[in-house]
Design a protein that fits this description.
Helix content is 38%, strand content 15%. It is of the alpha/beta class. The chain has one domain: TIM Barrel. Strand 10, helix 14 and strand 11 form a beta-alpha-beta unit. The chain is globular, with a radius of gyration of 21 Å. The relative contact order is 0.13. The protein binds beta-D-fucopyranose. The site of beta-D-fucopyranose has 12 residues, from loops.
C-alpha cells in the first residue's frame, strides 16, 4: 500500500443490476427510472453492468489496474428491503464476498453506505424530508458494520448530500423526483443528522476510519470586480459547499444569505432557526469527529447577480473558454487546487485529511476497428487534475488519496447509459469489458 491512496469508484445502482434478485427491495431509483420521461431514452439500472454477477471479473480488473483501494457503495435495499426491520442475509453475503475478494487481491475496500438508492418503503414515509430516516439510516449502518467491520477499515457514510437534495428533492431531475425548491432544505439537515448518527454506529462497531463524500465546487463570480457577482458567488458557495461542511467541522450551520430562506425573501440569520427542523443536540451529533473528508470534484461554478424576480440569490452562468466533456462540463483542473485550498483556509486545523473520492469525465468513447478505446481526452483530464492536486499539497493541503470516477462505464443517473465515465469500456449489449487507454495510463501513473 502506498501512503497516498490511489483508487477508483463506483456506486451500487449504477453498476450492479440484479434489481429483483436475492431479496433486494425496490429503491427510489427503480421507481424513478421506470417512470416515463424521467431518464433519457427510458434507461434503467435493472441490468446496468451486471456487476452483481460479474464482480469477480471486475475485481480482477481492479487488480490489473493496481489500485490501492476501491470505493463502491452498499445498496441499503439489498440489506434491508423495507429500509428498516428484517435483514436480508443474501444482501450482506454479496458484499461480504466482494470485500473478501478485494482483500485477497490486496485492495482496500472503501464502502459508501448511501449513494442515493433509498429504499422505496422509506420514501413512502417521506424519504429524507422525514427526520426518522436519519435514525433508520444509522440502524442500517449498524447492521452492515456488525458484519463487515472486522475487515473494512475505511467507511464513507453519505455520497454527495448536496446533489441528492438539489437534484432529487429541489429540482426533481433525480429520484425521488420531487421539485420542492427551497422547501427541500430539511433534506440537508436530515442527511447530515443521519451521517452523524452513522459515524457513532460505526465507532461503536470499532470502525477505525470514517469519511463522508461531499460534492464541492469552487464558486467564481462572473465579474470579479462586481460586488453583486461576488455576493452571488458567496451565496452559492454557502449552499453548495459550506452548508454541508460547516456543521461537520465547525459544529454550526452557515448563515443563509438573503433569498435562500424558504418562505422569506428578507434573509434569515441561520439555516437552523429558519427551518425549525434542527433540534438541540443535533449539531453535536453531526459534528462527531471524522477521519477524512472525501471531496468529489468535477468543475467550478460561475455565478452572476440574480435578476430582480429570481427565486435564488444567484444566477448560474456558463463557464466558457475551457474544453468540455461529453456532458458539456468545463474542464478546469486548477479548480481542484482552488477548492482544496479554500477548504483548508475555511477550516484550518479542523479540516481532517482530504481524499478526492471522485474525479473524472465522460467522453464519447467508441472502440476503434482494433478494439482499442483511445481516450486521450480522459488521460489529459486525469493528468491535469492529479497535477492540480499536487499543487494543493504543495500549498499545504493534506490530501491523501485520489479515486477516479469511474472504474466502469455505467448508468449515469438521468443520462442513462449515454455518459461514459469509465477507465473500462462496457458494451451494454454484451457486457464485454475493454480497458481503455486511460486504464493503461493510470496503471503506469500509479505504479511510479
Ligand atoms: C457524481 C455522482 C456519481 C457520478 C458522477 C459523474 O455526482 O456521485 O455517482 O454520477 O457524479
Amino acid at each position: 500500500m502506498h501512503t497516498f491512496i490511489w483508487g477508483t469508484a463506483t456506486a451500487a445502482y449504477q453498476i450492479e443490476g440484479a434489481a429483483d434478485e436475492d431479496g433486494r427491495g425496490p429503491s427510489i431509483w427503480d421507481t424513478f427510472s421506470h417512470e416515463p420521461g424521467r431518464v433519457r431514452d427510458g434507461h434503467t439500472g435493472d441490468v446496468a453492468c451486471d456487476h452483481y454477477h460479474r464482480w469477480p471479473q471486475d475485481v480482477a480488473l481492479l487488480a490489473e489496474l493496481g489500485v490501492d483501494a476501491y470505493r463502491f457503495s452498499i445498496a441499503w435495499p439489498r440489506v434491508l428491503p423495507e429500509g428498516t426491520g428484517a435483514v436480508n442475509p443474501k444482501g450482506l453475503d454479496f458484499y461480504e464476498r466482494l470485500v473478501d475478494a478485494l482483500l485477497e487481491a490486496g485492495i482496500a475496500p472503501v464502502p459508501t453506505l448511501y449513494h442515493w438508492d433509498l429504499p422505496q418503503a422509506l420514501e413512502d414515509r417521506g424519504g429524507w424530508l422525514n427526520r426518522d430516516t436519519a435514525g433508520y439510516f444509522a440502524d442500517y449502518v449498524a447492521v452492515v458494520a456488525e458484519r463487515l467491520s472486522d475487515r473494512v477499515s475505511r467507511w464513507i457514510t453519505l455520497n454527495e448530500p448536496f446533489v441528492h437534495m438539489v437534484q432529487g428533492y429541489a429540482l426533481g431531475v433525480h429520484a425521488p423526483g420531487r421539485a420542492l425548491m427551497l422547501d427541500a432544505l430539511p433534506v440537508a439537515h436530515h442527511q447530515l443528522l443521519g451521517h452523524g448518527l452513522a459515524v457513532r454506529a460505526l465507532r461503536a462497531a470499532g470502525a477505525p476510519e470514517v469519511w463522508i463524500a461531499n460534492n464541492c465546487s469552487p464558486a467564481r463570480p462572473a465579474s470579479p470586480s462586481s460586488e453583486a457577482d461576488r455576493a452571488a458567488a458567496e451565496a452559492y458557495a454557502t449552499l453548495h459547499n459550506w452548508l454541508f461542511n460547516d456543521p461537520l467541522f465547525l459544529g454550526t450551520y452557515p448563515d443563509l444569505p438573503s433569498g435562500l430562506s424558504p418562505g422569506s425573501s428578507s434573509g434569515e440569520p441561520s439555516f437552523g432557526v429558519t427551518l425549525g427542523c434542527v433540534r438541540d443536540g443535533d449539531l453535536d451529533v453531526i459534528a462527531t469527529p471524522i477521519d477524512g473528508l472525501g471531496v468529489n470534484y468535477y468543475n467550478p461554478t460561475l455565478l452572476a447577480a440574480p435578476c430582480p424576480d429570481d427565486v435564488l440569490p444567484f444566477d448560474i452562468v456558463p463557464l466558457t473558454g475551457y474544453p468540455t466533456t461529453a456532458f458539456g462540463w468545463p474542464v478546469v483542473p486548477d479548480g481542484l487546487r482552488e477548492l482544496l485550498v479554500a477548504l483548508k483556509e475555511r477550516y484550518g486545523a479542523a479540516l481532517p485529511p482530504v481524499y478526492v473520492t471522485e474525479n473524472g469525465c465522460s467522453q464519447p468513447d467508441v472502440p476503434g476497428q482494433d478494439g482499442v478505446v483511445d481516450d486521450q481526452a480522459r488521460i489529459a483530464f486525469l493528468d491535469g487534475h492529479i497535477a492540480a492536486l499536487d499543487r494543493a499539497r504543495a500549498e499545504g493541503v493534506d490530501v491523501r488519496g485520489y479515486f477516479v470516477w469511474s472504474l466502469l462505464d455505467n448508468f449515469e443517473w438521468a443520462e442513462g447509459y449515454h455518459q461514459r465515465f469509465g477507465l473500462v469500456h462496457v458494451d451494454f449489449a454484451t457486457q464485454r469489458r475493454t480497458p481503455k487507454a486511460s486504464f493503461h495510463w493510470f496503471r503506469e501513473r500509479i505504479s511510479t
